[in-house]
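Hi X.,

You mentioned you wanted examples for the new student's onboarding notes, showing what a folding record looks like when two proteins sit in one file. Here is a clean example. The first protein comes first, with its sequence line followed by its structure tokens.
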Amino acid sequence: MPVVFPREGNEHWPLPPDYDDLTTEGRRLARVNAVSLNGTPELEVASWRFFREHYLRPWEVGWFGNSYVESPPAHDQWIRDWYTHDRLIHIAPRGGCKTTILLEDILRNLVRFRFWECTAFFATREFCTARLGRVATQLEDNSRIIDDFGRQRPKRGRGTWNRGSVLETTSRCRLEGKPFMGATLGTRPSGLVVLDDVERSKEQVLNPGDIRQGFHDFFFNGLLPMARMPGSITPMRVVGTLYSRQMFIYALHKSKDPKIAEFFHRTLMTVYDMSTDVFMNEEWIENERRQLGEAAFSAQCLNAPVTDAEALLKIHPELTTYHLENRDQVYVSSPLQSVPTKLVTHQVARLDQVRDENDPDTLHIVPVTRKLVRPFGPAVQGMYRMLTADYAPTITELSDFSACQVFGLESTDAHPNTLFSLDAWMGKIERPTLVKILIDMALKWQVHVIGIEEYGLQKETFERFYQDILPQLQSRVSEGEASMVPAIVPIRFPTTFTKAEKIKGIAWRFEQHRVKIPVDRNDEVAYKALWDQIKLFTSDMGLLEHDDILDTLAMTQGIAKGAPPIAVSVAPDQLDCVQQLKEGKLHDDLGFDNFEHAVATGRLTDEVAETYFRALEEQRQREDLSCGDYDIIGYV
């Protein structure tokens, strides 16, 4: 057992107070004793500090090169946390020396213990080679370590010494390095398990959402089960920086899953928590802010991912929204038959030029809106209706969501080439349950087409629909209760498309106000998520944790194809319904009854009613004449 010497009045602590008077061997044993201190977090800090200063700081050992800087108190706190909690999610700013302090602690344990083991996961094989190579160099060439602890590299045939994968010392300690995503599920990690910036590779930082599920699966299905030993807890440290909200470590940090929240202690530091006069001082912080930009500085230095990329999906409070009024019971079960329910939208009546408040010489084009109220059922009946779906195969707190959405594409003068979101659902369920939801939504909205990207969901939906539902639906169509049988089609995008590129393909609809989303359903899970994802979407997707329901909107490109219009369309002026009735027009240009509109808006007068019924009678007479059978009598 190491000896803890009194600290008070001891200028050599953790060495003994009479260190200067000891023999050469006595001093060696005193140094070994100082490095061997353990049992409490404070003793671990003292041991690490001494090991760092005495064995690694001298320039000739090459650990710091020529850039040694005094460690801030935050590094002491890291060691305390590592030895206070068996399992830790440790988030620190980039440049805070996370990997260096981690390797120093591993190196200290390799020389002071026997049979100590550590499995360290890194982002790539190249990182494994670099990190283990750095440790191996100290064990091979650091004369101070060799003089005090003896030769560490085993003789040929007595142990494995591979700088890229495994280091086994003469004291039977073992350090194994693995690339995180390349690690085999059958390999059981032993001793301390470390995950050091495992999402740091270029592909993982640039496209974290594409591979987060892979990290999740390996962590929960492979690593955690293998790290459990009967009667003991395998210590684990997850160390990294929050570059993006779609990173796996971000999900671990925010997770409320009991498997994480109850078993992992979570810490987060920023550059301000680590700042001293010589390490990350105020001048350095301000220089970093200017060089990196606000978004990168916030993510890399404050561990608060934001983005300086512009929000691409522009929302107009009236022109990209709609709402319903006077919903009736028919709308709930048969929305296409609901006439009393009113669809309230806004058109672009004209485009005005407005001067910029800050720069009077700059003119902005601003749309002036006009309200349009129509019966919901007839309006939607005239739309090309489609249903898209996105399936998430796993059901965990950190996994993505399954989602589906019903759309109607209107092509009238009122709203040309305009996509309406009519219904939406989002959740975490098994595939058979999602298939049932898809079929129910398709029948309710009588969609023309069901578009699905994931092959397994395509296949199961097709089989279920055409085996179980089609005979009933064909019978309903023949009896006039349903209008059509939907087609089930695959949705395909180029394999080179990223998720961001696919979603950017619908940006023109927002710019030209050719998409409308219900603003009166924000309390529903799916639409709340849709609005959030629309507002947070940027070209780098840096603010999005999930994009599932927004992805179903982007999928409509695979069904509603064609080149986008080149400009915002201005709707033609609509004659007032009363004025149209006075002129003998029973229906407006969209086919809706002017009389019903006048009654609904309280503008029906006796004069207008008389004109209406006279026009209606004349129309009936014309229809009777056109339908009659006549004998043609010739003159002799």
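Then the second protein repeats the pattern, sequence line and then tokens:
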Amino acid sequence: DCGQIKDRFPRAPSGVYSITPDLRKASFKKTQKVYCEMRTNGAWTVFQRRSSARCTFNRKWTAFRNGFGGLKSDHWLGLRKVFALTKNKSRKWILRVDLWDHEGNSAFAQYSDFRLGDEKSAFKLHVGQFSGNAGDAIRGRHSGVDQNGFGFSTIDRDNDGCSPCIFGDIAETECASSSGGAWWFSRCGSAALNGDWHPAGDHIGWASGLHWDTWKTFAPYSLKATRMMIKSV
């Protein structure tokens, strides 16, 4: 992984590298290219990046499973690849979520013991202890919206637990459809970084956008940029 590259080449710059995760029984190439972020305390494997509307994230299950976009720009690495990296429980992984707003501010959330389940579990999310200054949006601001332990939902595969979910006078049945993107939704919840991207001042839609509710108000604010990345410890 990126950490092993950093260990061998301590001065290696950030960029695209080839790694060899544990891909047994996986139906894709053994060696995979990833973007390694070497500057932010080093050796992170980036699996999500948003900064503009050029790359749409309003896609179906197969796209999120396999990955899309360009590694040097906005992209989603692919749930199968992240699962392959994190499935060995003898190794521990940290998830870091970096957030930027349209006013020049930034914040981050970090989680210990990150891993994903296999596809049969809908790539169920597991995170451990939270740290950072963005707040723990994965576990949510309110009771009943904890996304930890939930499977991934897309516009064509619903695992969000809504049948429906009632929010005031709104009855929500598919969080992925209303948010414009996919996520580990739990009664929709307080985090959703794969929705529609909006420029400054265009935070339209009560759910559509890039949201981290414990840092910025869920509606109508949509973040300028996000980055999700993992590293082994």
